[in-house]
Amino acid sequence: MEDQHYNGDIWNREAFALLKKFGWNRIGDYDMDVKGEDGKKMGIDTIVKFETPLKAKPQLAVLEAKRYETKSFNKVLLQDWIERLDKKLLKLRNSAPFVEKFPDVDNCTISDIGIIAIWFSDTYNYREFYPKFKEALNQVSVSTRTRRAGVNSIYVLDNTRFMRLFALQNAIDNIKKEDGEYNFIYSPRYISGSPLTRQKALTIENIFSDIIFAEFKRGGETTSYIFYFGQLDLNSFRFLRNAYSKTSLWDKDIKIILYVYDADDEFRKIENDIKTDIFDGFTVSIMKMARNNSIPDFLLNMTENEQ
């Protein structure tokens, strides 16, 4: 069963506090009753918005937080969560009471993105449990019937994604210890046919990407940052180099700091090849991002203003 309601409510606030670090904003309060277009109330954990180069307006999303033990999870439960969230998104899409209560949503996209944020609290069982979770995720069936209201996208974040975000935020916090301007980079490869975009927010699509580009400007000097969460082999780093070449940072005068996630001892064998062969001619430093399977202290000890 779900952890006690108190713990679930805390995770709701912790999950958003983490996303807030990546430029996301909350609309309204936590755990709200919101009226859909049929006038009936629905329970909503959190309504969020974030800037995205894919849309002309900020992206609106509904975040549903779940805190469970691995033994209590199953595919039927996941299917139910997704179906319920899908219905909520559809009912909010043309809801006049929703816009009346939260006028800010009128300046955002339609409610077509839902996010299920699951934290499996018995982290000592998570590694063994993860294949079961992936299997359940692959077996979830989503209705493909034609709907006049349109189709929703629902993203499921679990410990694996959150552990990446924990590591990414820790790295960014270290970068920002110096004064300067920090931005994520969205290349034309990411937004086909569009110019490169710089922005403060990390999009939901990039949360699921193995490659994240960013830059830090200080005193007229630009440093390129690459955060990499993919396979640790030379072919994968060649693909990374090709993706990097599509950005404006493709300049041998710009220093590259490459952060690599969860690197093992085998990675050391190819580390020099990455610097001297794959990124030949560039000045490259390689840093490590450690896997952290616990909720970090800055979330556990956050103040009311940080929530």
Give a written overview of the molecule.
The protein is of the alpha/beta class. The chain folds into two domains: 153 residues, no CATH class; 126 residues, Trna Endonuclease, Chain: A, domain 1. The protein has nine helices and 13 strands. A six-stranded mixed sheet has the order 9-8-10-11-12-13. A five-stranded mixed sheet has the order 1-4-5-6-7. A two-stranded antiparallel ribbon has the order 2-3. A hairpin with an 8-residue loop joins strand 4 and strand 5. The longest helix is centred in the first third of the chain and has 19 residues.
Short summary of the structure?
With 307 residues, the chain is an alpha/beta fold. Helices cover 34% and strands 25% of the residues.
Structural category: alpha/beta
Strand order of the largest sheet: 9-8-10-11-12-13
The total count of strands amounts to 13
Give the strand content.
25-35%
Domain tally: 2
The number of helical runs is 9
**C-alpha geometry:** globular
Overall pLDDT level: 91
Largest sheet: 6 strands, mixed
Radius of gyration: 20 Å
Low-confidence stretches: none
N-C termini distance: 26 Å
Instruction: List SSEs in N-to-C order.
Output: HEEEEEHHEHEHEEHEEHEHEH
Helix content: 25-40%
